[in-house]
Amino acid sequence: MQAREHWHSRIGFILAAAGSAVGLGNIWRFPYLAGEHGGGAFLLIYLMCAFTIGISALFAELAIGKATSRSPIGAFKALKAGPWTLAAYLGVCAAFLTLSFYSVVGGWTLAYVVKSVTGALGGESAESASDAFGALVSSTVEPVLYHGLFMALVVIVVVPGVRSGIEFASKWLMPILFILLLTLILRAVTLPGAAEGLEFYLRPDFSKVTATTFVAALSQAFFSLSVGLGAMITYGSYLGAGSGSLPKATTWIAGIDCGVAVLGGLLIFSAVFAFGHDPAAGPSLTFVTLPTVFHEMPGGALFATAFFALLAVAALTSAVSLLEVAVSYMVDQHGVSRRTAAIVLGIAIFIVGIPSSLSLGPWSDLTLFGLGVMDLADYVTVKLMLPIGSILLCLYAGWVVRPHLLDTTSKRDGAYPLTFRIWTVMCRFVAPIAITYILIAGLIR
Ligand code: TRP
Fold first, then answer.
1. Are the beta carbons of 280 and 46 closer than 8 angstroms?
2. pLDDT at 136
């Protein structure tokens, strides 16, 4: 077998994995969920889920990848996982579906880059920003074209192979995104009226917490950390033997990801209250709030362009890891060339995503179980498939391949056995029971 490529450096690996984790989930999905679920209480529950169950699942994926040096399906086959391989197939389907609507939102960020340059963000007031966003997403052709453009970019990165491109992009762009985020926060928290937003976001109000809050928080933790469908197995598979402590790297990745989400929330909610937006506006929240902030800044158009461009790149590095799950399946199992697999799947995902885009415009009357197409795709993938995938993954890692993982990740890495013991209990009992409970409670409500 050909020697497998490795990450250039440990920090390169951490930033690349963080690049998969940090994406629209942090700056778009997290703030609007927090807004819908009462702010501070959601933030707290989310962080709790991420640092207990989410991080355990993340470690399980990275360790399986490292132990087998293979991408998801290949990894399960190499471990002779038998029926557990089902989890990998579920992951491939979930990745395909998730990307279909993720790419639509990725397309919005591209559209916003263009609108920042042409000055069409409508940031003069909350109403005009909301109108500008509404006009974009409810039209028929424009958002579909941007969705196609976004998918094309994803394919272009995936064709030559994830490793070099992703590691390079993440290493440079992640720090820039971070600095820009901090700059914007400085502007936003000093706006008159921002204090009310900080209060909403940072002071938990538990009276708004229901079972659905937990479902939303837990599934968001999986989504944001990129776990539940095997994407992180691929990233772990590019780790060589002497790559340092995996538990520590995992903690860094989760820390960066949650850190960016917390900062994203700070930015959005300061501005939401300063400009009189509705915190429970849903998926439009980030796109209507940020333009009003940029409008208040000297050189706002420049900041807006830079910010949406970086957000588009962050979305791109995440989308790449989603497409890679399906591509590596075609390459490993069906002997298709990487190029063909990426192009064919890219086109298929583009087509499947079109109804999601149209569901916000001409097809807005089309609903199933009371949800439009995009909401339904989001629900089925993020709220059902990711948690179920994570249960299977945790059970498998904790009960079946654990000795194998200890062998390849802990002993050689000199990791604390205590960490591994806690992780084992998390994977064997806590995660499966908690996820099952939350799923059922959320479904029956
Ligand atoms: N974590 C990414 C975000 O927050 C999305 C993502 C990338 C993802 N790869 C994934 C979600 C794998 C679930 C599984 O935007």
1. no
2. 97
